[in-house]
Every structure is written in C-alpha cells, then in structure tokens.
Specification:
Blueprint lengths: L1 H28 L3 H22 L6 H26 L14 E2 L2 E2 L3 H27 L6 H8 L1 H18 L3 H19 L6 H21 L19 H4 L4 H21 L2
Antiparallel strand pairs: 1-2
Helix pairs in contact: 1-2, 1-3, 1-8, 1-10, 2-3, 3-4, 3-8, 3-10, 5-7, 6-7, 7-8
C-alpha cells in the first residue's frame, strides 16, 4: 500500500513541475508530450527509492506531506544540475543562459564545465553532510536549528540564482531573501511531523520551489521569465491552450493542501 502511495505522490509532484514548466516555456520553445512528461517520469521513478531510504510511514498524512516535498526537490536537483553542467544546447534562444556561465559568458569548454559541476556537487554534498551531522547531534528538536539549518536549501537557491541572474538583470534584495525565508517557514512546517533534519531541510526546499514557481508562473502569466526577457513568442497558439492545464495544477495543489490539513489535524 505504501509503495502505491509513494508512486501516487511522486506522480503528483512530477505533474506539478511538468505543468508550470510547460506553461511558462512552451510559448517560446514549443510543446511536446515527451518534454511535458519528463519531470513526471523522473519524479515517479524517484518515488520508490525515496520512500525506501527515507523510511517515512506513508500511511500518515504528515509523512505524506514531507514525502511530496522530498520527491519534488530530488527531481529539481537532478534536472537543474543536468541543464546547468551536462546538457549541450544552443543558448541563443535565452536572454539569461541556462548553461553555466560567468556574467553571461557561457563556459563552452565541456571539460571545464564538468569540473566546475563536480566542484559544485562537492559543495552541495558538504552541505548535505553538515545537515546529516546536525541531525545525528539531535538538533532536529531545536526550533533555532530547524529554522537555521532548514533554510540552507533556500540559501543555496538564492546564491545560485544571484550568480546566474544578477549580472544580467540586476540584483534584487527582496528576491534574494525570498527563498531562504520560505525555506525557513516550510522547515517549521515539516518539523511538525518529523525531527529528522534531513527530512525537514530538503522537503522544505521542495515546497519553496513549488511555491515560488507557482507565484511567478500563474500570478504573472503575461510576464516572460528572465531567461526569455525580450525574446519573441514563437508559438502564440500555446497562449490559448495552456490555460487548459490550470485546473490540473489547481487540483494538485488542492490535494497537497488537503494532505497538509489532515496532517495538522491528525498528526500533531
């Protein structure tokens, strides 16, 4: 039963990412079913191993809530790493390059980019090891540790975003602190259902990404993302049919929020 729940939550996490991704990008890049379902396939594939290694009890709504955020962030980490350091793609269609760059200049040397990617991976691994060590020290019961350590993912996101975007579109102070603040809030939410700092910190980042992408994509649908700023809409017909995806997206959020309500009613 728990494996089926894991697969269902993984499917919902993937569809959530797939939907905001295609909604914002398809007018500029076009649409294909494979591209749309890519994140869905990855999240669903990650669900079973994530359930096994996290050892969450997915019959409890609180653990279901934590698990959704965990699968979400795992898929995002894999895809963003791939797009930044591994993928070979023409960057001329972007205003802000998606491949690793220094002040807008793409690092075209693949070997150099791979080495930078390995260094980045080592840094993230060190951060993960720090969270694991803090968890083993029993800090998951301390509110200050939950808020401070739980926001680490948000800080990584903030500094990464500033490195990528600020040299081209300028630095925005509120935007910089948005992810750490959201991550700290969601870390507190996760801490209501687990004292494991690993299962607090990384799901919190998953929910941070889900929230910020929802806000940027659906609250400002006519505003192009920074990476497409100033670029022409190549597929204007998409602007019409993409609204058909909104009910699915809202339904997924309703399920997640419903799980959250049940978690606070039954698991706290």
């Amino acid at each position: 039963m728990e494996w089926l729940i894991a697969l269902g939550l993984g499917l919902l996490a993937g569809l959530h990412t797939s939907t905001w991704g295609i909604y914002k990008d398809a007018p500029y890049e076009g649409y294909s079913l494979g591209r749309y379902l890519r994140s869905t396939f990855i999240s669903t594939a990650l669900a079973v191993p994530a359930a096994y290694f996290s050892d969450l009890n997915l019959l409890r709504p609180g653990h279901m809530l934590v698990f959704w955020g965990l699968v979400y962030v795992l898929e995002r980490a894999i895809m963003e790493y791939y797009k930044t350091f591994l993928r070979e793609e023409d960057q001329s269609k972007y205003f802000i390059p998606m491949t690793f760059h220094v002040q807008g200049e793409v690092v075209t040397d693949r070997k150099k980019r791979l080495l930078i990617g390995l260094a980045y991976l080592a840094g993230v691994s060190a951060a993960v090891a720090g969270v694991v060590a803090a968890n083993q020290a029993g800090l998951g019961e301390q509110l200050w540790a939950v808020l401070l350590i739980g926001s680490i993912g948000g800080w990584i996101s903030a500094f990464g975003g500033a490195w990528k975007d600020a040299p081209i579109e300028g630095f925005e102070l509120l935007k910089f602190f948005r992810s750490p603040a959201l991550a700290a809030f969601y870390a507190w939410v996760m801490s209501q259902f687990t004292s494991n700092l690993v299962l607090i910190t990384f799901p919190a980042l998953g929910y941070t990404i889900a929230t910020t992408e929802t806000y940027k994509t659906f609250f400002f649908p006519s505003k192009p993302r920074g990476k497409f700023a100033g670029k022409p809409v190549e597929y204007p017909e998409v602007l019409e049919w993409r609204t058909n995806l909104v009910p699915l997206y809202v339904a997924i959020w309703c399920v997640v929020i419903g799980i959250g309500v049940a978690a606070f009613l039954l698991d706290t």
